[in-house]
Amino acid sequence: MTTIIAIETDEGLTFGWDSQITAGWHIYEGEMPKVFTNNGIIFGVAGAVLDASVIRQANLPSPDDAGWDIDKWVTNKLVPALTDALSKRGALTTTSGKIETDSHLLIGVRGRLYKVGGDLNVLRRADRTYVVGSGCEFARGALSAGATILKALEIAAQHDMATGGTLHVHTEKELVAA
With contact defined as beta carbons under 8 Å apart, do 2 and 30 qualify? Predict the structure, then answer.
């Protein structure tokens, strides 16, 4: 799958991720980054490549229209827009009336981080440290022991066969400016 890390501090957001794509027994370096921006919003997608492709190209609402309550905007505007885009491409499933996706998302907007789970729930962590993907437990453990984002990705790559390739670490400003 992958490992994506995002940390929110008073100085801003920092994202780290690997570039390996794992499909069954095939492993290769991905050309499209797992962390990208769309309409000024940063997305980190761990899971289905289709989900990342759909989100990358989706027509999403602008965070400029959010007003002061960015949490409300993410829950009531952004996630429904993502749900609609994923649904139109057949990237969502419904089990017992519950909508699900094959991915976990990290979203950065206006200096705040959000995790959107496979059931499209939105959460914020009190410790402002987010990790998703198959190597997430290794990376979280490394971060808890004081590792940098890059070192945590290296540790995840050592222990998780679906994490690897080129490792990237970028700030919110670098990602939005790209």
Answer: no
Tell me how far apart the alpha carbons of residues 94 and 99 are, in angstroms, rounded to a whole number: 4
Domain count of the fold of the chain: 1
Q: Could you give the CA distance from residue 79 to residue 45 in angstroms, rounded to a whole number?
A: 14
> Mean pLDDT for each 10-residue chunk of the chain (178 residues)?
94 96 79 90 91 93 84 94 88 75 90 91 95 96 98 97 94 90
What phi and psi values does residue 164 have, to the nearest 5 degrees? 170, -160
Which two structure tokens, joined as six digits, stand for 101?
A: 């996706």
The Cβ of residue 55 has, within 10 Å, a number of other Cβ atoms equal to 22
DSSP 8-state symbol, 48 = -
Full-model pTM: 0.92
**Which domain does 70 fall in, by range?**
4-177
CATH of the domain at 131: 3.60.20.10
What DSSP letter does each residue of 1-19 carry, written as one string?
---EEEEEETTEEEEEEE-
The token pair at 58 is: 């989706």
